[in-house]
Amino acid sequence: VDRKFLPENTTYALVKRLLKESVRPYLKWIGFALVGMVFVAGATAASAWLMKPVINDVFVAKNKEFLLPISIAVLVTFAIKGFANYAQSVIMHYVGQRIITDTQHRLYGHLTRMDLGFFHQTPTGNLISRFTVDINMMRAAVSNALTGIGKEFLTPIFLVGVMFIQDLYLAVIAFVVFPVAILPIVKLGQRIRKVTVSTQEEIGQFTTLLEQTIQGARVVKAYRMEEYEKGRFRKIAERVFQLVFKTARIRSMASPIMETLGGV
Length: 264
What we know:
Elements: H1 11-23, H2 27-60, H3 67-112, H4 116-121, H5 124-166, H6 168-177, H7 182-215, H8 217-222, H9 226-252, H10 254-263
Helix pairs in contact: 2-3, 2-5, 3-5, 5-6, 5-7, 7-9
């Protein structure tokens, strides 16, 4: 039976298990990080709101009375944003690294309980990849998801509030245009996910080949198979390159989409 079709391996089940085993123990720290993200979002919106008096009152009207208070307000706003961003970044890196360490403990404990048949059937490179590449990708996914929910979600809310306060007409236009970006971004995310899965598999094969070549160096030398092994390595390395480049190319496609909509 293909394991990917088992209920416990569905995306929802895996995310639920990840949240329960890895994220729940650090909810307090994540809460502190979210507070910092709120300050970052609020300071970002405040800096955008301050641009109007800076341009209109200081540069256009040349009103010197507003120069000092606006300068102090800008300094305080960016200071708050900087310190809050530092705090949430440090906390999220701590949580992400703890998730890696805890998962490695559980994974290694589970690995020691497996029978010998499992080790004979599973390539060593795939197992090593689970401890290194996969876990680090999981850490990045958790950190990016939590940061996205916090800072990247709250910042637009605060900025939208500033938009409606300063210009209701332009804010309504933005609400009509920007939802158009949702569909292509979702499609790009789906494509990146498929390519990422293939990349993980190829990296596992890559690690397996290295392990086999190093351990079997005497056999390779004895049968003069250097060119054959170089050919195998070249094929896998090129496949990894193509997949990594494809991922970067797909991610880069988001930039022209967002820039075009921003111009509109």
